[in-house]
Each structure stands twice: as structure tokens, then as C-alpha cells.
Amino acid sequence: MKKYILSLAVVSLFYTNSNACAWSDPDYEYFNLFTQSIIKDKSYLPFLHTYSSRFFGDYNPSMIPDDNIETWKKYFNNQLNYAETQSLVYKVSMNDLNALKNGTPSNPLLQKLGTGFYSKYKEGIDYLIEAKYLEPFMSINYVESENSFYYNRDENRKNATSLDNNKTIAALTSLYNAARNPEIKQRYGYQLVRLNHYTRDYDAALQAFKTYVEPIKLKGTVYYMALDQLAGAQRGLEMNGDANWNFFQVFMNSKSRKESAFISMKLSDTASFSNIMKRANTNEEKNMAYFLLGYEDFNNPIPIMEKMFDINPDSEILKVMAVRSINELERSYLPTYYYTSDAYGRVSVYRGNTENNTSKEATSDKKTTEVKEVKEEKVSLWQKIVRFFKNLFGGSTSAPSGDGSKASQSDDELLNNPNRIPFYTTGYGGYEDNTKDYRDDLEKFTSKAKEKSKDEYWQIADAYLKFLKKDYKESTEILNNIKTTNPEYLEEIKRMKVLNDIVSQPKVDAAFEDHLMKDYAEYFVEKEVKKDTANVNSDYDYYGTAPSTADFLKDVMANRYFLQGEDGKSFLMNNKLSDLQYNPNSSLVKSVEEFYRKPNKTQFEQQIIAKNMDSVGNVDAFFNTIYGDRAVRLADFEKAKSYYEKVQKFGGIPRENYDWTEKDGQKITQKQYASSEYNGFNNIPGLVFGHNVWESYQSPDAESMKSEGYTEFPFIKDNMNKLELTDVLIQLKKIGNGKDEKAARANQLIGNLLYNTSILGYYRHVFVMDIDNSNGGKYYFWNNDKGNPYKYYYKNFLDTSYIEPDNFDLAINYYQKALKLSNNKEEKARILFQMASAEQGKYYQYEAKAPKDFDYSDPKWSEKEDARQKEMDNLKNQKYRTYFAQLKAQYSDAETTKSLMGSCSYFSYFMR
Fold first, then answer.
1. To pair with 426 at 20 to 30 A between CA atoms, which of 19, 303, 328, 752?
2. Is the CB of residue 728 less than 8 Å from the CB of residue 720?
């Protein structure tokens, strides 16, 4: 007997949309501004547009009424409400009903109905007693075949074959004959069809339908319940065409069985909907068949919608097709993240983790390999999913100017046309380059439909399509003219008016911010979410929070501020102040600080923007640490000291610990630094002035680094904070102005510190607001080779690494002074090696910026990349091996040189 286990690979075939992140949910990747569920016939809610699952599920199941309950409610002359009827039919036990029959009800609901209820509805209650007796057995017996998938079924579970078949059929037949109410009689017929279906006596099921169901001449809920069972039996007899047609009738005529009927149609006939169309006779059947065809093959539904419109312009399922079309279009225009790729195929995306503990290679030779492998890894991953990015605003994608102003972009187009929102011009779902044509066709159809249909839905849809076209004035005029009392329509109209108002605003000033707080605060003031304290994981959502209208408006505001040059406000619309630690570039930090110190903030600025500044304990210390760090990297030690002197009570770079246990799930806590631990300001070891013995970032510093010896500089401590460190550097700089060996040593130590805290050094984390030297985005050369990568807003800040690049010439200049002043051969060899290492950094920076006239999509990419790499290697040897060549020519016999050849494989190769 063959058994198969469904693999994840097989399961993945159900989801056809590729995505940048395997864990992402495609329904969370755009802003669902047009609410699909405003359709009036809620029975079609499962068939709204979704990529996340087989059926749309973003609604309360109670929104779809149960046909069976509604029929029973009518049978009981509406004496019970819907919930009470549901309880009576599905929840009240058989024993409780028997107690009611005997005049001794104990169930509260039955007591409320009174003993006279049974005598009034005797046939119905007796049927429910029989149905509740049968229900535990009403499932088909599982028969395993050699081609069955592995199925862990409870073998002791009851099924229809557990009953005495002859006795049960005889009892149901007797009850059928005794019943006088046609509906109750038909219900017994339904049970007979179901029993024979579930015992796999398919022929008997067909006969039971003809004998006990059809003659009643009722085509209501019970009839279609029985027809559903008949179709199942027909499928068992491989009468697939008839089975499919009957499932189609169930789909068309029931409210709560549409999902199951749809699945059954798919299982019955691979050409299911095409064959249904051939059998459709009435306009209603043709209309429904067109709907199912369009639903299954959603490449371009408008031709199908035209046919449906010709049949019935007021059709509810036509609105379902329209809302699905609008949703598909939305995904093209309203992504929650934007993707950009450069010549290497690298992509910036708002997802991921800024910290990666991947170990670094142990030699200088491997550093080139590391950079190259990073590029190739990104290319191969993203090439499969990259969506070609066109300008969100219709203009240039050139980088913003360095002073924070965006005026350099495409002849001021963004500023001259500020009423733009971040809409994509490409899409999912097969439209991509034809999105505009599709939008225009949909708009024409909607305009036509609103003229013929009496439903205000089409006017709302038309207004929304005008919104997508950025015709906010026309959209608002349409909305203002809609007359409706439908509460869902009214809510959608209200939201769309808000959208039109905000996105059409050419500039955000204090007056407009006051307007937002006065009229639209609900979209910007975050509501407090109560957490379940008994469950540590209660507020944890694997995908995060689904995007909302409020999220969209937040992005619009962030973009407006960005275009206006107010980078600090733009940043804080999407990020916390503490996020600056991951990409502490100076101009952005300065803009955020300016907003922080801005007096007389508007209410919007105080409540909406400034609230994101509370993630840092001591804000002044945070800013001054960033400024001081940058000054050190620029070798301006006096300026750095002036900033560090203002750092008081620094609690450490704000980080969070993420702990997971089987018992408690994920627990997030604020990181608490040990008294001896480096926290971004304190506990910098004196080895920061040393040199690396071997290049291993994951090894302890005592293993990777070696001291130069500091006896002649007693002010260098084994442990320092940044203020003390800059004081040391200032003293060394002063000593370095001398002409002796001590001056040479002082300059060498400064050069060491600048190199050791560069992107190549063991202490590379010290002056870029990091807490250790583990690998991550900020340590890739190509992440800061293009200048500031943020072009529209800072929403993807945590995933697009950028800090100002190192200036290796600063270290080399100090080494030059040391080399000139030193008379010690061994020291000169050491200094030259350090200079050569810094020179490699200059090469890596050049390589990252070097132009490339081909990309990964080029069929000759591999061949061209190899040729380019050969060219780069030649250039490296010609222009970036100056100090290695000098070391080889003048100091190859030095003990220091021999020692370096033993510990550095690349240097050993070069010296041959």
C-alpha cells in the first residue's frame, strides 16, 4: 500500500505569487483602502479577492446566514430569534428535546418556550430528535486506497456504516410516511439520501432522491441540502457532469454552502465551469456560470463582466467581480513597501533583521571574497522576485541632494507636483505593464454600470478609481452626490473623503496639521490595545499587523514631509528615535534633532510625531554620542570631545532581548548592560590602539588583537569611555607633532585606532552605534556606496543600511607620519602592513562604486562578471597595492614581515 506525505513544496503550489520573504503574507503587502466586504450579499464574502488562502476569510462568519437556520426560524413562525433557533437546532441535546416532549424541559431555552411549544410544533421537534440521533454517524466511511495520501484518521470514529442500515432506513421511511408537513417530510427524504450516500450505496441515494425528495415539489433550503448529497453520490458513481451541475445548483441557490459546493465542483470535473456554461439555460444560470469562469481565470475579468452586465446590470455577483478587480488594481497602486534595485540586482525592502551574527573570514584575502559573495547572494535571491520599480511619482529616481533638500530631483518635479502619493505603476496578478490600460477599462465599465444600476456601490467604486488616478476633486464630487442609507457604504464614503482631502494637500503646514487633529484624529492617534497578561504571546502576530487606512495616511504624511525637506518629521512618522542607531547618518540625525528641539510644536507634532522619541532614555546623550562618533571617524578629536562631554547618564544603546521558551513563547525585554560590558559609550579596551594578530571577528579581542605596548603613554588605560578615549587621542595627536620615535609611536597608535574602528577593523562597531562587531548591513561596502538611499520616505529605514563611509586616508596619513619619523625597521614593516590594509579598504570602496553596464538578467552575466572581476583585480594590483609593494621591496627580510606571512595567507601569497 502506497502512502504519500504532503510536502511543503507541494503545499506551496497553492500559492502562485512569489514574494521577497518566504514568511510574508501577500494580503499584508498593500493598503486595502476599498473595503471588499461592503457587498450586500454576504454569502459571497468567501469569494472576495485574496492571495493568502483558498477563500477570503477577513470577515465574521456570522455575517453569512445559515440557510438551514433561517428555514427553521420561519418554520417556528419567528417565535425564536436567529441565535435561539441556532441553539435549538445545533446545540440543544437530544435528551433535552425528549424532556420537552415529555413535558419536563430543564434546558433554559426550552423552559422559556414552554410545554405548549412541543404540541404546536410536534413534527418539527420529533424530526430534530431523530436528526440529533443520526448526526454523530453522519460522515462517510473512509476507504484507503493504494494512492491515498497519508491520513491519520481516528479508526474508532463513528460513521454511517456504524448504524444498522436496514433498521435506520425503515425508521426514516416510516417517519417520512407519517409526516404531514411537506417541509418536514422532505427533511426525512434528505436524511435517507444522506445515509445512503455516506454508506457508499450511491445507487440507493439516487433512488431515494427521486422517491422521497423530488415528489415534494419544494425547492427551498432542504431541497438543495438533499441535492448536495445527491451530487456527492453521483460523483461516487463517476457521473461527473451531472454531479457538477447539481453542485452548481447548490452553489447558486444556497447562502451558507457556497464554499463547499465550489470545492465539490472542482473535485468533480476538471473542466467544471466550462461544462456548466454549456448546460446553462436561464439568464440566472448563465450569469452565475460567467461569474465562476471569471473567478477561476482572473487574468482579465472585464470581458466576463461585460457579459454579466448585459444579462443583469444589478447583479450582486457582478459587484463581487468588480470589487475583486478593484482589489487587484489596488495591489499594483498601493504597496506597503517599495522595492528598488541597482546594477547588481540588490534590492531595498522593508523587511528583515539589521543584525546578523554570520562570522567574518579570517584573512584579508577573503575580505574581497566576502564582498563579492554578498553581492551574488543578493542577486540570486532577489532576481527571482524583483518587480521592476518605476518612479512612484512619475519623475526621476535620482538621489536627493546631500543637504536634505529634495529640490535636485528631476527639475523639481516632485516639488512642483507635490500632490502625489506613493502609488506603484506596476502590479501583481499579470497586469504589470498593462496596469494603466486595465485601470482605464475598469473605470469605463464602472461609469457605465453606475448609470444603469440603482445600487450606490457603482458610484463609490467610480469615485475610488478616480482617487487612484489622483483626480481627487472629481472623486470628492462623486462622493458628495451619493445618497445612501447603507451604513457600510456611508463608512466607505467617509473614509474616501478623508483620503481625498489629505492626499490632495500640496503642502503640510501647521494649519493643515491642526486640521488633521481636529477632523481626522482617529486616523492618527493610536488606540490602546489591551494585552492578555495571562498569555505572554497574546500580542504576537507572526505577520505583524495588517495594513490599514491609518497606515496609508501615515505613509502619505511621511512622504509629504520628505518632499518638503523635513526629514526628521518624515523619519519619525515611521520610526522610533532609537532606530537611528542602525543607520546613524549625520544629516538625518541633525534633522531629527532639530525637530526634537523645535519650540511650540503643533498638537499633531506633539501627539503623533514626537511620541516616537520616547524610545531613548536620555535623548541629549543619544544625539551627542552619535555626533561624537562621527567626529572621531573624521579624526576631529577635539570636536568629538566637545560632544562626549555633554553625554551624561548614558544608559546604553537601546536594544531589546528576544527570548523564546516552549512554555512562555516569545518574551521581549529591554537589554540591561553589565557594568563591564561595552554599551555604546563605556568599557572600550586599550586594545583599540593595537593591531590584529589574525582576522577573526568572532574571537575574543585578546585572541584577535595585540597591544603595541603603551608604557611611554601611561594615560592610555586598559578600559576607557569615549570621553576618556578622545582625551587620549588629543594627547597622542599633540605628541605626534614632535620629531622623535615617541612621536612616531603616537601617530601609529592614532592610525591603528582609526583603522581598527573602520569597517575592516575588529572594533568596527565602536563609532557606528553598534554594540558588537557581528556581521550586519552596516558592514557591507555596497550599502554606503551610492549615497543616501532614501528617496521617498524613511519607512524602510531599518532594512536599507546606510552610514557615511570611512575615510581610510585619515588613518594612512597618520601612518605616513609614523613611517617618516620611525627609525626602527621592524616598526616600519608593521606600519607599512597597516597602511596596506587601509589601502585595501580604499579599493573595496572603489569596487562598490565602480560602474557596471550589465545586470543579472543579462544572459551573458557570468561571462561578463568574470571579465569585470579580472579587470578589477588588475586595477587593484596596479593602484591599490602601493604599500604591499613597498613592504615586499624594502622589508621582506624583517622578522615582522616573516611573522605576517605566517598569519596572513593573502600577504604570504603576495610576497611570493
1. 303
2. yes
